[in-house]
Specification:
395 residues
Length: 395
Protein backbone atom coordinates (compact mmCIF):
# COMPACT_ATOMS: atom_id res chain seq x y z
CA UNK A 1 0.00 0.00 0.00
CA UNK A 2 1.31 3.45 -0.93
CA UNK A 3 1.83 5.92 1.86
CA UNK A 4 -0.51 8.83 2.45
CA UNK A 5 1.74 11.89 2.47
CA UNK A 6 0.24 15.25 3.35
CA UNK A 7 1.56 18.77 2.89
CA UNK A 8 -0.03 21.39 5.12
CA UNK A 9 0.56 25.04 4.27
CA UNK A 10 -0.62 27.93 6.43
CA UNK A 11 -2.26 30.52 4.17
CA UNK A 12 -0.55 33.96 4.13
CA UNK A 13 0.72 33.02 7.58
CA UNK A 14 2.42 36.25 8.72
CA UNK A 15 -0.50 38.37 7.51
CA UNK A 16 -3.01 36.05 9.14
CA UNK A 17 -1.05 36.30 12.40
CA UNK A 18 -1.39 40.10 12.26
CA UNK A 19 -5.11 39.75 11.50
CA UNK A 20 -5.51 37.63 14.63
CA UNK A 21 -3.96 40.46 16.66
CA UNK A 22 -5.88 43.17 14.79
CA UNK A 23 -9.12 41.94 13.14
CA UNK A 24 -9.58 45.31 11.41
CA UNK A 25 -6.89 44.18 8.92
CA UNK A 26 -9.09 41.39 7.54
CA UNK A 27 -9.92 41.95 3.89
CA UNK A 28 -7.36 44.76 3.45
CA UNK A 29 -4.18 44.99 1.42
CA UNK A 30 -1.42 44.10 3.88
CA UNK A 31 2.26 43.30 3.41
CA UNK A 32 4.83 42.18 5.95
CA UNK A 33 8.22 43.86 5.61
CA UNK A 34 9.54 47.40 5.54
CA UNK A 35 10.07 50.29 3.16
CA UNK A 36 13.48 51.36 1.99
CA UNK A 37 15.97 50.55 -0.72
CA UNK A 38 16.47 46.99 0.52
CA UNK A 39 12.91 46.36 1.73
CA UNK A 40 11.15 43.34 0.29
CA UNK A 41 7.70 41.82 0.74
CA UNK A 42 7.99 38.83 3.07
CA UNK A 43 4.36 37.87 2.45
CA UNK A 44 1.14 39.68 1.65
CA UNK A 45 -2.62 39.31 1.97
CA UNK A 46 -4.74 37.83 -0.81
CA UNK A 47 -6.29 41.28 -1.33
CA UNK A 48 -2.83 42.74 -2.00
CA UNK A 49 -2.18 39.93 -4.48
CA UNK A 50 -5.12 41.14 -6.54
CA UNK A 51 -3.01 44.23 -7.31
CA UNK A 52 -0.03 42.14 -8.36
CA UNK A 53 1.87 42.29 -5.08
CA UNK A 54 3.93 39.15 -4.49
CA UNK A 55 6.32 37.71 -1.93
CA UNK A 56 9.93 38.60 -2.66
CA UNK A 57 8.94 41.81 -4.49
CA UNK A 58 10.72 45.06 -3.58
CA UNK A 59 8.44 46.93 -1.19
CA UNK A 60 8.74 50.17 -3.18
CA UNK A 61 7.32 48.39 -6.23
CA UNK A 62 4.54 46.85 -4.11
CA UNK A 63 3.48 50.33 -2.97
CA UNK A 64 3.41 51.53 -6.59
CA UNK A 65 1.09 48.65 -7.51
CA UNK A 66 -1.06 49.09 -4.41
CA UNK A 67 -0.94 52.67 -2.98
CA UNK A 68 -3.22 51.70 -0.06
CA UNK A 69 -0.90 48.88 1.03
CA UNK A 70 -0.60 48.58 4.80
CA UNK A 71 3.00 47.71 5.68
CA UNK A 72 3.69 45.94 8.96
CA UNK A 73 7.08 45.05 10.38
CA UNK A 74 7.20 41.37 11.25
CA UNK A 75 6.61 40.21 14.83
CA UNK A 76 8.71 37.07 14.48
CA UNK A 77 8.50 36.08 18.12
CA UNK A 78 4.71 35.99 17.82
CA UNK A 79 4.87 34.13 14.50
CA UNK A 80 7.18 31.56 16.06
CA UNK A 81 4.69 30.98 18.87
CA UNK A 82 1.84 30.42 16.41
CA UNK A 83 4.04 28.14 14.32
CA UNK A 84 4.78 26.04 17.38
CA UNK A 85 1.05 25.77 18.10
CA UNK A 86 0.47 24.71 14.49
CA UNK A 87 3.06 21.92 14.60
CA UNK A 88 1.80 20.76 18.00
CA UNK A 89 -1.70 20.49 16.54
CA UNK A 90 -0.49 18.37 13.60
CA UNK A 91 1.43 16.07 15.94
CA UNK A 92 -1.78 15.21 17.76
CA UNK A 93 -2.78 13.34 14.61
CA UNK A 94 0.59 11.80 13.73
CA UNK A 95 4.11 11.87 15.20
CA UNK A 96 5.58 11.63 11.70
CA UNK A 97 5.92 15.33 10.96
CA UNK A 98 8.65 17.11 9.00
CA UNK A 99 8.57 20.89 9.43
CA UNK A 100 9.62 22.41 6.10
CA UNK A 101 9.48 26.02 7.27
CA UNK A 102 7.77 28.21 9.83
CA UNK A 103 4.41 27.88 8.03
CA UNK A 104 4.41 24.45 6.37
CA UNK A 105 5.06 20.80 7.07
CA UNK A 106 4.90 17.34 5.57
CA UNK A 107 3.27 14.52 7.52
CA UNK A 108 2.63 10.80 7.09
CA UNK A 109 -1.07 10.04 7.64
CA UNK A 110 -0.97 6.49 6.29
CA UNK A 111 -2.18 4.76 9.46
CA UNK A 112 -4.80 7.41 10.20
CA UNK A 113 -6.36 7.26 6.71
CA UNK A 114 -6.22 3.47 6.65
CA UNK A 115 -8.76 3.51 9.49
CA UNK A 116 -10.83 6.31 7.96
CA UNK A 117 -14.05 5.83 5.99
CA UNK A 118 -14.24 9.41 4.69
CA UNK A 119 -10.81 11.02 4.05
CA UNK A 120 -12.36 14.24 2.72
CA UNK A 121 -14.34 14.78 5.92
CA UNK A 122 -11.28 13.79 7.97
CA UNK A 123 -9.14 16.57 6.51
CA UNK A 124 -11.98 19.11 6.48
CA UNK A 125 -12.41 18.44 10.18
CA UNK A 126 -8.65 18.84 10.57
CA UNK A 127 -8.81 22.29 8.94
CA UNK A 128 -11.80 23.36 11.04
CA UNK A 129 -10.13 22.14 14.22
CA UNK A 130 -6.96 24.07 13.44
CA UNK A 131 -8.97 27.24 12.86
CA UNK A 132 -11.04 26.86 16.03
CA UNK A 133 -7.92 26.34 18.12
CA UNK A 134 -5.45 28.76 16.51
CA UNK A 135 -7.50 30.97 14.13
CA UNK A 136 -5.11 29.90 11.35
CA UNK A 137 -6.19 28.82 7.87
CA UNK A 138 -4.40 26.09 5.96
CA UNK A 139 -4.39 24.43 2.56
CA UNK A 140 -3.79 20.69 2.37
CA UNK A 141 -2.40 18.47 -0.36
CA UNK A 142 -2.81 14.70 -0.03
CA UNK A 143 -0.90 12.25 -2.22
CA UNK A 144 1.68 9.46 -2.35
CA UNK A 145 4.86 11.58 -2.48
CA UNK A 146 6.07 14.80 -0.92
CA UNK A 147 6.27 16.55 -4.30
CA UNK A 148 2.68 15.67 -5.24
CA UNK A 149 1.43 16.62 -1.78
CA UNK A 150 3.18 19.99 -2.07
CA UNK A 151 1.64 20.58 -5.50
CA UNK A 152 -1.73 19.66 -4.02
CA UNK A 153 -1.55 22.22 -1.22
CA UNK A 154 -0.57 24.91 -3.75
CA UNK A 155 -3.40 23.96 -6.10
CA UNK A 156 -6.23 25.62 -4.15
CA UNK A 157 -5.74 28.56 -1.80
CA UNK A 158 -6.85 29.67 0.66
CA UNK A 159 -8.22 26.80 2.76
CA UNK A 160 -8.05 24.32 -0.10
CA UNK A 161 -8.01 20.53 0.02
CA UNK A 162 -6.66 18.61 -2.98
CA UNK A 163 -6.10 14.88 -3.41
CA UNK A 164 -3.66 13.89 -6.16
CA UNK A 165 -3.62 10.19 -6.97
CA UNK A 166 -1.12 8.83 -9.46
CA UNK A 167 -3.82 8.68 -12.13
CA UNK A 168 -4.68 12.35 -11.45
CA UNK A 169 -1.21 13.74 -12.28
CA UNK A 170 -1.93 14.41 -15.94
CA UNK A 171 -5.39 15.88 -15.29
CA UNK A 172 -4.39 18.18 -12.42
CA UNK A 173 -0.76 19.07 -13.03
CA UNK A 174 -0.16 19.05 -16.78
CA UNK A 175 -2.37 22.10 -17.56
CA UNK A 176 -0.58 24.25 -14.94
CA UNK A 177 1.84 26.98 -16.01
CA UNK A 178 5.50 26.00 -15.85
CA UNK A 179 6.00 28.63 -13.10
CA UNK A 180 3.68 26.56 -10.88
CA UNK A 181 6.03 23.57 -10.96
CA UNK A 182 7.68 23.11 -7.57
CA UNK A 183 11.43 23.04 -8.15
CA UNK A 184 11.39 25.33 -11.18
CA UNK A 185 12.74 28.71 -10.11
CA UNK A 186 12.04 32.19 -11.45
CA UNK A 187 15.27 32.14 -13.44
CA UNK A 188 14.61 28.74 -15.02
CA UNK A 189 10.99 29.22 -16.09
CA UNK A 190 11.73 32.02 -18.63
CA UNK A 191 14.43 29.83 -20.20
CA UNK A 192 11.95 26.99 -20.54
CA UNK A 193 9.32 29.28 -22.03
CA UNK A 194 11.88 30.43 -24.58
CA UNK A 195 11.82 26.86 -25.99
CA UNK A 196 8.00 26.65 -25.81
CA UNK A 197 7.81 24.77 -22.53
CA UNK A 198 4.84 26.73 -21.21
CA UNK A 199 3.07 24.15 -19.05
CA UNK A 200 4.03 21.27 -16.80
CA UNK A 201 2.64 18.96 -19.46
CA UNK A 202 5.03 20.46 -22.02
CA UNK A 203 7.90 19.83 -19.62
CA UNK A 204 6.97 16.19 -19.07
CA UNK A 205 6.60 15.58 -22.81
CA UNK A 206 10.07 16.98 -23.44
CA UNK A 207 11.60 15.00 -20.59
CA UNK A 208 10.09 11.73 -21.80
CA UNK A 209 11.31 12.44 -25.33
CA UNK A 210 14.72 13.58 -24.09
CA UNK A 211 14.54 16.96 -25.76
CA UNK A 212 18.14 18.17 -25.77
CA UNK A 213 17.39 21.86 -25.21
CA UNK A 214 15.29 20.99 -22.16
CA UNK A 215 18.00 18.68 -20.82
CA UNK A 216 20.62 21.39 -21.34
CA UNK A 217 18.60 23.85 -19.25
CA UNK A 218 17.78 21.45 -16.42
CA UNK A 219 20.93 19.32 -16.39
CA UNK A 220 20.92 16.35 -14.02
CA UNK A 221 17.81 17.76 -12.30
CA UNK A 222 15.78 16.66 -15.33
CA UNK A 223 15.68 13.03 -14.19
CA UNK A 224 14.42 14.10 -10.77
CA UNK A 225 11.61 16.16 -12.30
CA UNK A 226 10.62 13.28 -14.57
CA UNK A 227 10.42 10.93 -11.58
CA UNK A 228 8.33 13.44 -9.66
CA UNK A 229 5.85 13.74 -12.51
CA UNK A 230 5.55 9.94 -12.66
CA UNK A 231 4.76 9.65 -8.95
CA UNK A 232 8.19 8.24 -8.07
CA UNK A 233 9.32 10.99 -5.72
CA UNK A 234 10.29 10.61 -2.08
CA UNK A 235 7.69 9.67 0.49
CA UNK A 236 10.12 9.76 3.41
CA UNK A 237 9.27 12.03 6.31
CA UNK A 238 12.54 13.28 7.77
CA UNK A 239 12.14 13.78 11.47
CA UNK A 240 14.05 16.82 12.70
CA UNK A 241 16.61 16.87 15.45
CA UNK A 242 15.47 15.89 18.92
CA UNK A 243 13.57 19.01 20.01
CA UNK A 244 14.99 18.56 23.51
CA UNK A 245 18.50 19.02 22.10
CA UNK A 246 18.09 21.45 19.21
CA UNK A 247 15.91 24.16 17.71
CA UNK A 248 16.06 24.82 13.99
CA UNK A 249 14.39 26.83 11.27
CA UNK A 250 14.75 26.66 7.50
CA UNK A 251 13.12 28.16 4.45
CA UNK A 252 13.06 27.78 0.69
CA UNK A 253 14.17 30.95 -1.07
CA UNK A 254 11.97 32.67 -3.61
CA UNK A 255 14.49 31.78 -6.33
CA UNK A 256 17.84 30.06 -6.62
CA UNK A 257 20.47 32.62 -5.66
CA UNK A 258 23.91 33.36 -4.31
CA UNK A 259 23.17 37.05 -3.72
CA UNK A 260 24.74 37.92 -0.38
CA UNK A 261 22.12 40.48 0.64
CA UNK A 262 19.19 38.11 0.13
CA UNK A 263 20.90 35.22 1.93
CA UNK A 264 22.09 37.44 4.78
CA UNK A 265 18.57 38.79 5.31
CA UNK A 266 17.16 35.25 5.27
CA UNK A 267 19.69 34.03 7.82
CA UNK A 268 18.82 36.99 10.04
CA UNK A 269 15.11 36.12 9.98
CA UNK A 270 15.86 32.46 10.71
CA UNK A 271 18.21 33.41 13.56
CA UNK A 272 15.44 35.55 15.09
CA UNK A 273 12.99 32.66 14.80
CA UNK A 274 15.39 30.20 16.42
CA UNK A 275 16.25 32.70 19.15
CA UNK A 276 12.57 33.36 19.87
CA UNK A 277 11.81 29.67 20.27
CA UNK A 278 14.89 29.13 22.45
CA UNK A 279 13.92 32.05 24.68
CA UNK A 280 10.39 30.75 24.90
CA UNK A 281 11.64 27.40 26.19
CA UNK A 282 14.28 29.15 28.36
CA UNK A 283 17.13 27.23 26.70
CA UNK A 284 20.58 28.08 25.39
CA UNK A 285 22.85 26.15 23.03
CA UNK A 286 26.57 25.75 22.41
CA UNK A 287 26.57 24.61 18.77
CA UNK A 288 25.30 26.54 15.76
CA UNK A 289 24.70 24.71 12.49
CA UNK A 290 23.77 26.01 9.06
CA UNK A 291 22.32 24.14 6.10
CA UNK A 292 22.39 25.20 2.46
CA UNK A 293 20.57 23.21 -0.22
CA UNK A 294 21.92 23.61 -3.73
CA UNK A 295 19.83 23.60 -6.91
CA UNK A 296 19.92 19.79 -6.97
CA UNK A 297 18.40 19.69 -3.44
CA UNK A 298 21.66 18.37 -1.96
CA UNK A 299 22.03 19.59 1.61
CA UNK A 300 25.39 21.03 2.66
CA UNK A 301 25.88 21.28 6.43
CA UNK A 302 28.48 23.00 8.61
CA UNK A 303 28.52 23.64 12.34
CA UNK A 304 30.70 25.20 15.00
CA UNK A 305 30.79 25.05 18.80
CA UNK A 306 30.94 28.43 20.50
CA UNK A 307 32.64 29.32 23.78
CA UNK A 308 29.56 30.31 25.72
CA UNK A 309 25.97 29.04 25.53
CA UNK A 310 23.59 31.49 23.88
CA UNK A 311 20.10 32.04 22.56
CA UNK A 312 20.69 35.58 21.33
CA UNK A 313 19.70 36.06 17.70
CA UNK A 314 22.61 38.43 17.08
CA UNK A 315 25.13 35.75 18.07
CA UNK A 316 23.33 33.01 16.13
CA UNK A 317 23.16 35.23 13.05
CA UNK A 318 26.79 36.31 13.31
CA UNK A 319 28.09 32.75 13.59
CA UNK A 320 25.76 31.50 10.84
CA UNK A 321 27.01 34.15 8.43
CA UNK A 322 30.65 33.39 9.22
CA UNK A 323 29.99 29.73 8.44
CA UNK A 324 28.21 30.69 5.23
CA UNK A 325 30.92 33.11 4.11
CA UNK A 326 33.68 30.60 4.79
CA UNK A 327 32.03 27.62 3.10
CA UNK A 328 29.19 28.49 0.74
CA UNK A 329 29.46 32.10 -0.45
CA UNK A 330 29.79 31.04 -4.11
CA UNK A 331 27.14 28.31 -3.94
CA UNK A 332 23.83 28.96 -5.70
CA UNK A 333 21.30 27.88 -3.08
CA UNK A 334 17.63 26.98 -3.05
CA UNK A 335 17.08 26.73 0.71
CA UNK A 336 18.92 27.63 3.91
CA UNK A 337 18.53 26.76 7.56
CA UNK A 338 19.93 27.50 11.01
CA UNK A 339 19.92 25.21 14.03
CA UNK A 340 20.91 25.87 17.64
CA UNK A 341 22.13 22.55 19.05
CA UNK A 342 23.25 20.94 22.32
CA UNK A 343 20.58 22.80 24.24
CA UNK A 344 20.51 23.06 27.99
CA UNK A 345 18.03 24.72 30.32
CA UNK A 346 19.22 28.06 31.63
CA UNK A 347 18.56 26.98 35.18
CA UNK A 348 20.88 24.01 34.74
CA UNK A 349 23.59 26.00 32.99
CA UNK A 350 27.08 26.04 34.41
CA UNK A 351 28.55 29.35 33.33
CA UNK A 352 31.81 29.02 31.42
CA UNK A 353 33.69 32.28 31.79
CA UNK A 354 35.16 33.95 28.76
CA UNK A 355 37.87 36.58 28.88
CA UNK A 356 35.23 39.29 28.96
CA UNK A 357 33.65 37.77 32.06
CA UNK A 358 36.84 38.13 34.12
CA UNK A 359 36.43 41.81 34.83
CA UNK A 360 32.92 41.31 36.15
CA UNK A 361 33.99 38.56 38.53
CA UNK A 362 37.43 39.82 39.53
CA UNK A 363 36.46 40.84 43.07
CA UNK A 364 34.83 37.47 43.74
CA UNK A 365 37.66 35.36 42.40
CA UNK A 366 40.84 37.44 42.17
CA UNK A 367 43.12 34.58 43.16
CA UNK A 368 41.69 32.18 40.61
CA UNK A 369 41.97 34.77 37.89
CA UNK A 370 45.63 35.42 38.70
CA UNK A 371 46.46 31.71 38.67
CA UNK A 372 44.70 31.24 35.34
CA UNK A 373 46.61 34.11 33.78
CA UNK A 374 49.95 32.79 35.09
CA UNK A 375 49.21 29.28 33.87
CA UNK A 376 48.56 30.67 30.40
CA UNK A 377 52.17 31.88 30.31
CA UNK A 378 53.68 28.57 31.47
CA UNK A 379 54.52 25.85 28.97
CA UNK A 380 53.06 23.35 31.42
CA UNK A 381 50.32 24.84 33.62
CA UNK A 382 51.06 23.75 37.20
CA UNK A 383 49.77 26.43 39.57
CA UNK A 384 46.69 25.67 41.65
CA UNK A 385 44.82 27.23 44.51
CA UNK A 386 45.42 25.64 47.92
CA UNK A 387 41.72 24.73 48.12
CA UNK A 388 42.03 22.71 44.91
CA UNK A 389 45.09 20.85 46.24
CA UNK A 390 43.30 20.01 49.50
CA UNK A 391 40.27 18.85 47.55
CA UNK A 392 42.38 16.45 45.48
CA UNK A 393 44.23 15.16 48.56
CA UNK A 394 40.98 14.47 50.37
CA UNK A 395 39.88 12.25 47.49
Amino acid sequence: MAKVIVHIDLNAFFVRAEEIKDPSLVGKSVAIGHLGRAGIVSTCSYKAREYGVRSGMPMNKAVQLCPDLIIIHGDYKYYSKLSKNFISYVKRYTPLVEQASVDECYADFTLQIKKCNDPIKFFKDFQEGLYKETKLYCSIGVSITKFLAKMGSDYKKPNGLTFIRKKDIATILYPLAIEDMFGIGKKTSPRLRSINVNTIGDLYYNLVNKDQMTLDILGSFSSVLKDWLEGKGSDEIILEFDPAKSIGASTTLFEDTNEYEIISKTFKELAKEVSSRANESDQVGTTIQIMAKDTMYKAHIKSVTIDEPTNKWEKIYSVAMKLYEKNYSSLVVRAVGVTLQKLIDKKDMVVQMTFFDYEEHIKQSATKMLINELNKKLSKPSLKRLSEVKKNVSK
